[in-house]
Fold each of these.
Amino acid sequence: MNALRVFAVGGVTSYRALFNWIDPWIFVPQTLGYPIFEILFFAYLGRFASVQSDRFFLVGNAFMAIAITGFFGMGQAIGGERRSQTLATLLASPANRLALFLGRAVPSMLTGVVVAATAFTVCSFVLRVHFATHELLGLAAAAAVSSFACTSFGLCLGSLGLRGRSVSLFADTVGGSMLLISGANVPLERLPGFVRAVGSGLPLTHGIQAGRILGAGGSFGAAGHLLAREALVGCCYLLLGVAMLRVLEYEGRRSATLETF
């Protein structure tokens, strides 16, 4: 119950504090503008190059919006505390570490899901791409599994915030690379074999494939193995992230570098 209280109360309080220094009238258009224009950019670029359909780029880049939020949400849950010089105080508490940082990240990730859904809806209207109800439900299921995998990977990135100078550098690098290697904008079969191998070990790759199958009217039976792989990737990164959090916290305490830049 204590861990649940830390997760819920800490997360809500941290998210409310965000709007003490940022105006929602700036936050909302900035948050929505990026994914909307990214989707439209790649969709019209694909039209010009005669590569794939609008639906292909719409689904892929809507999933990317969820991924970026998962990476930065978990990353800043730790890196932001360090930069604000409050990390040592948090780690001095006996609170469960996973509940502590996940509670701070989940509100941001939920915001990302809402933003991705809004961008998907707006761009579907602009691009005149229509989905049936069962296709939207399939996309929602694939997005939920992908969000879990991206959040788990974000925990690994966030753990680096215990020692690294800037988590955003890692998140930007990975997020930019995944525009290519995840299959969001380039069909996987057109990528070199070693790139596909790297992508299969990262979150989102299998989730996007499953989303495209389900978004095209396919059944969960056809996409089930891809969703299972995405969930497995997420579980592996979750275990790795928890281990990294423990090890790097111990090393930070031992070397007194938790607040050193």
Amino acid sequence: MADWITPDWPAPATVQARVTTRRGGVSRGPYASMNLALHVGDDAAAVAQNRARLRRALPAEPYWLDQVHGIEVVDAASVCGVPQADASVTRAPGVVLAVMTADCLPVLLADRAGSVVGIAHAGWRGLVGGVIEATIARMQVAPGELIAWLGPAIGPDAFEVGAEVRDAAITAHADAAQAFVACGPGKWLADIFALARLRLARAGVARVAGGEYCTVRDGTDFFSYRRDRVTGRMAALLWIEAAAGNR
């Protein structure tokens, strides 16, 4: 696999997206090698080098978020600093949206006209809380005009949860029961991709791609908190290309 993934989805040509892997950086030990997170115990100088390498492949510095497993959505073109939020949107060309993950699900959204994009960090708490729906609402276009891509996340055969997670998901959305398979007393395997598709479908987004990469099973290409505990973070990145004369 290359140092990043280019999503295979029917986005307009002006919409660009990438997801980094753990390859291509300078971090060592459990963070090897392309860790992009400053909050996980890695050497700050190594993270700075990794971010500089990433920046050279992008039209602008990524718009990083202080992610808290919530549902706050910000407009990346109008907020300064690093806001506490789990999703961002923009209509401004050249603004690079970003979320970091290491098992949670990055959800990328774009409208068919290429006029607005949104990205969400969706762990089970965010999904149950409605981070996808909040991102869609902030994009301010008809959900039927949106397309979505589900990035690398913990796969359905690796995401063991307790009954409290299943109960919370079903309370929020009764159809979520189909995304859980019993695997022992009070234990369930959860399909985070299926949960996201259910939320997207209920919100009116019919075209959904992705969902084929498991972060836990592929330790060569992906960081995984569930697998390793001490580990780095990948980044999912999304932007609208600026017109040639405005670059």
